[in-house]
Amino acid sequence: MTVVRSTLDTAGEDFLAAAEAMETKLAEVQVEFDKALAGGGPKSVERHHKRGKLLARERIELLIDPDSPFLELCTLAAWGSDFPVGANVVTGIGVVEGVECMIVANDPTSRGGASNPWTIKKSFRINEICEQNRLPVISLVESGGADLPTQKEVFIPGGRMFRDLTRASAAGIPTISLVFGNSTAGGAYIPGMSDHVVMIKEQSKVFLGGPPLVKMATGEESDDESLGGAEMHARKSGLADYFAQDEYDAIRIGRNIVKRLNWRKQGPAPRAEVIEPLYDPEDLLGIVPADLKIPFDPREVIARIVDGSDFDEFKAMYGSSLVTGWAELHGYPVGILANARGVLFSEESQKATQFIQLANRANTPLIFLHNTTGYMVGKEYEQGGIIKHGAMMVNAVSNSKVPHISILMGASYGAGHYGMCGRAYDPRFLFSWPSAKSAVMGPAQLAGVVSMVMRGSAEAKGLPFDEEADKGMRAMVEAQIEAESLPLFLSGRVYDDGIIDPRDTRTVLGLCLSAIATAPIEGTENFGVFRM
């Protein structure tokens, strides 16, 4: 039998302590989510509603199919910066007329929906997802263009947003703009470069320069409607393909555009019958200990996310610090690599390399479940070839062509983060649990290394070593690295696609696998030279 037999004691002291710690972390994250959901705050929201306008998320809710999910992405972008949490734009994958689409909605209640440096970074990530997964793009436009005080960080790199939109069109990926308000300066190029454009009577305003700028530049007197109103663009400039009476009509037209795309998925269809796991997803709250130095069995996670808790383990007795095997998730075949005891040895690296090759031969997507402190160090392991074996695994991950999805559950340190397909290795999606941490190494280890280097430097120069100052330095460095390794920090910098509740992991993975199947899923046999 390949069904995972859980030994998790959900009434045990360790489980209850871990669950309590996870719930505390979830509550902390929810506070930050609420900031993003609040947009520009109650006064801005009220003012927007008084103008007869819908909020960004209200527009999305009406656009997607009734009772269908919306997988919001990069919700906490800009967290910890001087800019609003969420970066003035709501992004995510939703189903419109049965078609999975990437939806990008400016939030006009937050600084007029202007694009700041984090909006740009978030947009680049969203465009990558669209390109890799061949997702049609629907832009819900209402933006004042660039955030002018930070134009030096927005203007030059920001041009890539328009480049990406036109490249999507050239690749046959449909691009649709529904214009809900002002679309000024750079914002005007979003509808200008989209395949399909909907504008709203007496509401949409699309121009490169508004009346004040035109007056300053040319001396010409003009008004919003004649310069860039919906009726002008529908009758004279030809920029508007559809003329909507109001926001609801624009959304109706947008849904009809998607319905007429004749869009077809190019990846495999899932098995029709979806079998739920045998174990309660609520249990996922208590699997990861609050102290990440304490190992946990990732099979307990696998048993609660894969169909029927059925997991066909590969090389179960070899390289036991890495669990690998085959399963189905929401009817989609997947390969899973999951860290068991943190450290990756030579055996684990070779096992992973072979497994990744097999997944490519079978055109099977891979899921990486992170809890690693990195590759093993020490004289014995260096002499045994840990560098070349770790390099084999990184080589395999780098050149694998099947889609990868990464979930950071616990630690994700050092080159182990790379070997398990961290952000730099282009996973199609990467999410973090609130328990995750990621950095070059653990805070105590990093502070200790810095201390030893400083001590050695002092000895080499024949200078006394200040033990008290060293103690303070270590505490400061540990605090800094701890803060910079937490999910909120990483998510704020768009190093993941979102922080998720562990109980939602199966659902999120299912949505991602479905989106991935919009594009063909094809492996490769072309890897770099493996140093044996």
Question: Brief description of this entry?
Answer:
By secondary structure, this protein is an alpha/beta fold.
Write the layout of secondary structure elements.
Blueprint: H1 13-37, H2 42-50, H3 56-63, E1 70-73, E2 89-96, E3 99-106, H4 117-133, E4 137-143, H5 151-170, E5 175-184, H6 189-192, E6 196-200, E7 205-207, H7 211-218, H8 224-228, H9 230-237, E8 242-244, H10 247-259, H11 299-302, E9 312-314, E10 322-329, E11 332-339, E12 342-344, H12 346-361, E13 366-375, H13 379-383, H14 386-399, E14 404-413, H15 414-419, E15 429-432, E16 437-439, H16 443-460, H17 467-484, H18 487-492, H19 505-516
Parallel strand pairs: 3-4, 4-5, 5-6, 5-7, 6-8, 11-13, 12-13, 13-14, 14-15, 14-16
Antiparallel strand pairs: 1-2, 2-3, 9-10, 10-11
Helix pairs in contact: 4-5, 12-14, 16-17
Organism: Rhodococcus spelaei
InterPro entries: AcCoA_carboxyl_beta, ClpP/crotonase-like_dom_sf, COA_CT_C, COA_CT_N, MCCB/AccD1-like
Family: Belongs to the AccD/PCCB family.
Kindly describe this structure:
With 532 residues, this protein is an alpha/beta fold. The protein folds into three domains: 55-259, 2-enoyl-CoA Hydratase, Chain A, domain 1, CATH 3.90.226; 281-440 and 486-516, 2-enoyl-CoA Hydratase, Chain A, domain 1 (Alpha-Beta Complex), CATH 3.90.226; 443-484, no CATH class. 41% of the residues lie in helices and 18% in strands. It has helices at residues 13-37, 42-50, 56-63, 117-133, 151-170, 189-192, 211-218, 224-228, 230-237, 247-259, 299-302, 346-361, 379-383, 386-399, 414-419, 443-460, 467-484, 487-492, 505-516; strands at 70-73, 89-96, 99-106, 137-143, 175-184, 196-200, 205-207, 242-244, 312-314, 322-329, 332-339, 342-344, 366-375, 404-413, 429-432, 437-439. Strands 1, 2, 3, 4, 5, 6, 7 and 8 form an eight-stranded mixed beta sheet that branches. Strands 9, 10, 11, 12, 13, 14, 15 and 16 form an eight-stranded mixed beta sheet that branches. This is Acyl-CoA carboxylase subunit beta. Pfam families: Carboxyl_trans.
